[in-house]
Amino acid sequence: MTESLAITKFSDLANPTRFLALVARLLPWMACLTAGLFAVGLYLSFTTEGDYQQGETVRIMYVHVPAAWLSMMCYSVMALSAIGTLVWRHPLADVSHKAAAPLGAAFTLIALATGSLWGKPMWGTWWVWDARLTSVFILFLMYLGLIALNRALDDPSRAARLSAVLILVGFVNIPIIKFSVDWWNTLHQPASVVRLDGPTIAPEFLVPLLVMALAFTLLFFTLHLMAMRNEIWRRRVGAQRRMAARMAGREA
Amino acid sequence: MSHTFYIALSYGIAALIVALLILWVWLDGRGRRRELEELERVGVRRRSSVASVDEAR
Q1: Could you tell me which of A138, A115, A110 has the C-alpha nearest to residue A189?
Q2: How many helices and strands in chain B, by DSSP H and E?
Q3: Distance of alpha carbon A179 from alpha carbon A190, whole angstroms
Q4: Which residues cross the membrane (chain A) (predicted)?
Q5: CB distance B44–A241 less than 8 Å?
């Protein structure tokens, strides 16, 4: 019963008008919650103690780690949406993965830039071609490729199917990024939060990190809903312009 | 260079990218909303809304 209700609610969202109404209700709350979490997260990021080894540069981690998590989460959301496009043909699935690609590219860029700025004082180098850094750089290039593909094709349904296949093929990179630090000998340190035996970092660093991660995640979902709404509007404008051109042609 | 420089630059770059992202999404939305309003103004409506107007008559 609960499952069928969930499926009914999910199917209801196939109607873009209902989806737009839901987004209009949710967005103000999500935006306020995001701003509040960022205020708390930034306060904690700058008031907690520095690390005994990293010193003050540990503060870069409160931006770098959430951005890096989001770069992978955004791609996972796109992969789920790609399945929605290819298997269920959900009308909003391709809107979702098209809208998410620029957001994923932006968060990956933040992860790469802040990682590099942490690497210089801590490792003594801006960049090394180790497995973690290289696989994240490939993820960034994949986001750019998907954005270019979506913009190159005029037919949205064709672009959606092609993008969906590419996204699912590219998803192989996500476990490679996650486990690269275990599978290969990398300069990048291994996981210290998401581990089977629990986090290995002290609570005074973990709390600001988790608050910032939550703030970044909510920021992503807020922007994703806004970008999906924009894409629906863009398609409506296109459809209405085509309809107006047809009507004008008939009158002529 | 001091650690403060790397920390300030990290937060600065992250804030700039997030601000540009928010601005781009917001401007895109405003542009599309204006286009829809313009189409509405010249009398081009979605088929569903035309049907609902006809039904009301």
Answers
A1: A115
A2: 2, 0
A3: 9
A4: 26-46, 66-88, 100-119, 131-150, 162-185, 205-226
A5: yes
* CA–CA separation, A98 and A87 (whole Å): 17
Is the predicted ipTM greater than 0.95, yes or no?
A: no
Residue A185: phi and psi, rounded to 5, are -85, 100
What is the torsional sign of CA A102, A103, A104, A109? positive
Tell me: the pLDDT tens digits for A185-221? 888 887 777 666 777 777 888 999 999 999 999 999 9
Helix, strand, or coil (residue A55): strand
Residue A141: name the closest of A166, A121, A119 by CA: A166
Nearest chain B residue to A222, by CA: B22
Count interface pairs A-B at CB distance under 8 A. 87
Chain A residue whose CA is closest to B43: A244
What confidence tens digit (pLDDT) does each residue in A68-99 have?
999 999 999 999 999 999 998 888 999 999 99
